[in-house]
Amino acid sequence: MKKLLITVITSIAAIVCACAETPADENKSNNETASETTASVVSETEKEVTKVDYKALGKPLVALTFDDGPNTTTTVQVLDVLEEYGVRGSFFLVGDNINEQTEAVVKRAYDMGCEINNHSKTHSYMNQMTAEEISAEVTFVSDKVKEITGEGTKFFRPPYIAVNDTMYENIDMPFIAGVGCNDWDNAVSADERAEKTIEQVKDGTIILLHDSYGNFKTVQALKTIIPELQAQGYEFVTVSELFEARDIEISSDDTGLYTHLEK
Ligand SMILES: [Zn+2]
């Protein structure tokens, strides 16, 4: 199974590998494709080996999450900022925004160790939908993400945080909310976004931001949010890692709506 997984990763890497760092590897071949393939497998192995036990680490944890992407502008800039500060986030994708161009951005996020999650196909009020429509919304995104990354989505963010029982019955992922700063409103400045976010954060908080097209003030705000929380001792984790650190099982029967995961 693992061999198969590596084979799949290798095949994908051979096609789109533009970002895998080439390590100082004495087995490095002169053949360019072969050396990129080696680099990708090595970095994948390292990723597994360096898995951190965030519960044992004992530091306060926070999860950055981003809704409404992917796109080739804001999402790329968010990834640049995350990379600059050496942190990872979780992206909740809108299926209708996934296309040939944005797939590469999703792959980049995944390769950086970010988590790719589900925010429905059409970003509609799903509490007004039938069971079949609800299933189709989430399956579309999960299938697309699986095509890109090799794994489906683990968490769901309801559009407009509008939920009902039919949604819980037909979506087999935990629902995530989070603390926001009205960053969908262009009138809210980057400084206000940063300030409002930071003041709401405590150990185990999920931060809800938007990497929607043109939302550059949030990119700007991130450049304050991340270093400030790092200075306060916070460790940035994905939503999965936060669940794991809190011993909460990722269950298809979960009927919660998570914002703060207390210790
Ligand atoms: Zn949204």
H/E element string? HHHEHEHEHHEHEHEHE
CATH class of the largest domain: Alpha Beta
CATH topology of the largest domain: TIM Barrel
Percent of residues in beta strands?
A: 5-15%
Estimate nothing, just give the exact number of structural domains: 2
Overall 3D form:
globular
Radius of gyration: 19 Å
List segments where confidence is low: pLDDT < 50 over at least 5 consecutive residues. Answer: 1-47
Q: CATH H-level name of the largest domain... which superfamily?
A: Glycoside hydrolase/deacetylase
C-alpha termini separation? 35 Å
Largest sheet: 5 strands, parallel
Can you list the ligands bound to this structure? zinc ion
Task: Please give a quick description of this structure.
The protein is an alpha/beta fold. It is built from ten helices and seven strands. Strand 2 (about 90-95), helix 5 (about 100-110) and strand 3 form a beta-alpha-beta unit.
How would you describe this protein?
Helices cover 46% and strands 10% of the residues. The protein is built from ten helices and seven strands. It has helices spanning 2-16, 32-49, 54-57, 74-85, 100-111, 131-149, 165-170, 190-200, 216-231, 239-245, and strands spanning 61-67, 90-93, 115-118, 175-176, 205-210, 235-236, 257-258. The strands form two sheets. Strands 1, 2, 3, 5 and 6 form a five-stranded parallel β-sheet that branches. α4 (74-85) runs parallel beside α9 (216-231). The two termini are 35 Å apart. Mean pLDDT is 86; it is low at 1-47. Bound molecules: zinc ion (ZN). Zinc ion binds at residues 67-68, 119, 123, 159.
